[in-house]
């Protein structure tokens, strides 16, 4: 599914929860997170991405398929030398299921987009050391 106003609104109406060592952090697009910024500074990380393999192209898949896809993505991240932390995307409305994610530091935008594209995602969440998560479309 291509970028649409409706799809962008759905991304904006989502909490991007990450489970970091020391606690949980809820992120919202374009809103600075002091907790995340402090954690990134302590970790010495300069950038981050929130990646998921669930529901490619905004088409809901069954739980078993989503879990299998997510496991494959996690293995790929590990094989590329990244240390993914668990996370989940939770929509503000109840009409979309929570999606398991990986929070990855120092991945670089080109690699993050490549992985998002490989797993059929419309967009990824990406940010820098300032702790502000931004929506980045896979296709511009």
Question: What are the defining features of this structure?
Answer:
single chain, 140 residues, alpha+beta
Arrangement of strands in the largest sheet? 2-1-4-5-3-6-7
The biggest sheet amounts to: 7 strands, antiparallel
As residue ranges, the low-confidence spans are none
What is the mean predicted local confidence, pLDDT? Answer: 93
Distance between the termini: 12 Å
User: Into which percentage range does the β-strand content fall?
Assistant: 25-35%
Classify the helix fraction into a percent range.
25-40%
Shape: globular
Radius of gyration: 14 Å
Give the beta-strand count: 7
Enumerate how many helices there are, as a single number. Answer: 4
Order of helices and strands: HEEHEHEEHEE
Number of domains: 1
Structural class by helix and strand composition: alpha+beta
């Amino acid at each position: 599914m291509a970028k649409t106003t409706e799809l962008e609104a759905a991304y904006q109406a989502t909490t991007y929860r990450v489970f970091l060592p020391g606690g949980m952090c809820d992120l919202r697009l374009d809103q600075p997170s002091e907790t995340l910024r402090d954690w990134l500074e302590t970790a010495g990380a300069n950038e981050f991405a929130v990646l998921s393999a669930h529901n490619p192209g905004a088409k809901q898949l069954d739980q078993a398929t989503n879990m299998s896809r997510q496991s494959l993505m996690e293995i790929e991240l590990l094989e590329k030398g990244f240390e993914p932390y668990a996370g989940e995307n939770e929509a503000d409305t109840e009409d979309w299921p929570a999606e398991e994610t990986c929070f990855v530091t120092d991945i670089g935008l080109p690699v993050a987009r490549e992985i998002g594209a490989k797993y059929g995602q419309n967009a990824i969440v990406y940010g820098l050391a300032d702790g502000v998560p931004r929506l980045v479309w896979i296709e511009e």
